[in-house]
Design goal:
Layout lengths: L12 E6 L9 E8 L13 E8 L12 E8 L20 E2 L14 H5 L10
Antiparallel strand pairs: 1-3, 2-4, 2-5, 3-4
């Protein structure tokens, strides 16, 4: 599914579960995936690794077409900055990348100076 998320896509999020410490990551990629359950670790089909996911409230309804739940997944690919600090994303970041410190339930993550340029842990959100 698209990585360009709307707040309405996240209305039933209950909590964010991190599999890795988000404070150690400049950015994470976020995507909205369809999964069979509201809670628990979803299956992961991408290259790289899942670093977090959201769980949904009991009131979340399944997609009427597929019968699946729409949940956010946070992940990194093998060529991302954490694995290759001097690689492709030494400066800049993929389009779906957001600062993990800005991720909360029902809130789309934001880009910051740190997520986009890897400069400073105290960098402010990009306008």
């Amino acid at each position: 599914m698209s990585s360009l998320l709307q707040a309405s896509d996240l209305a039933h999020e209950d909590r964010v579960v991190w599999l890795e410490d988000p404070d150690e990551l400049d950015y994470v990629r976020q995507a909205l995936d369809k999964t069979p359950r509201r809670r628990g670790k979803p299956r992961y089909y991408r290259d790289g690794r899942m670093v977090g996911f959201t769980e949904l409230s009991e009131t979340a309804e399944a997609d009427p077409d597929s019968g699946l739940q729409k949940r956010r997944v946070f992940y990194l690919l093998p060529h991302d900055r954490d694995a290759e600090p001097n690689g492709l994303y030494k400066e800049g970041a993929p389009g779906e990348a957001v600062d993990p410190r800005t991720i909360e339930p029902r809130t789309v993550g934001r880009k910051t100076e740190r997520s986009q340029r890897g400069l400073s842990p105290d960098a402010q959100p990009v306008a």
